[in-house]
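re the bet — no i am not wrong, look at it urself. input seq straight from the record:
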Amino acid sequence: MSRKRATSSRNSKPEPTEPAIGTPTGPDPVGDVPAFGAGSSVAAISGLDCKVLVLNKLYLAVRVVSAKRAFGLLARDLAEVIHIDDGQYLNYDFESWAEVSQIAAEVERERHDWVKTVRMDIAVPRIIRLLGYDRLPEQRVKLNRRNLFARDRNRCQYCGHHFPTSELSIDHVHPRSQGGGDSWENLVCACIRCNAKKGGRTPAQANMTLVKKPAMPRRNPMISVRLGHDRYASWKQFLDNAYWSVELR
């Protein structure tokens, strides 16, 4: 079994301390791929539909793609697999990862999702690193209904209960009739009953209290929702300081 290279520990991973990045080497090879859809089921998705975190060559998170897209990048030698095992960062090219997959299929098959090919089964990587791309995503999260529902986790910000999306609305904390605008700090999820009760008043005027103060999330909130699943636990260390601008469709 050949291995492209392995790093001894997390501390040996490149960790740039300055925000300035070198000149990009070319167009983004990944493309603008949306992250998790609202109705996706983590437990039921097929191997090619699993999500893969993409890092730039400086080990900074840039976006999330499907496993199908990730394998395309690996097969064209545009990326490598980053596998975390007992605190070590192990780097594999596509050929080496295919070899490692054969061993994993025998000893730890339940720990991976799989893609079947004519010759073999290949484990779906959780993280890949682009070899010639050093850009960073735009540092903002798009303000839209999907991201608002995800940020508030489908929880009414007045009564505190969770509801399906169809039973939630978007409420202006400071009403538009009183000069309130559309912003992360002024929009919250509200159930139909609480929205009707509040009407065109501020929470103080309606004698209502917000569950928490609304704020712009630091990264795509749909990714935060999925981090609780063991499948994507290895992403967290790369996402603590990441910002996301992927439009969810």
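see?? The mean pLDDT is 78. told u. also The beta strands are 5-6, 51-55, 61-66, 79-85, 88-92, 114-116, 121-123, 127-130, 168-172, 187-191. so pay up
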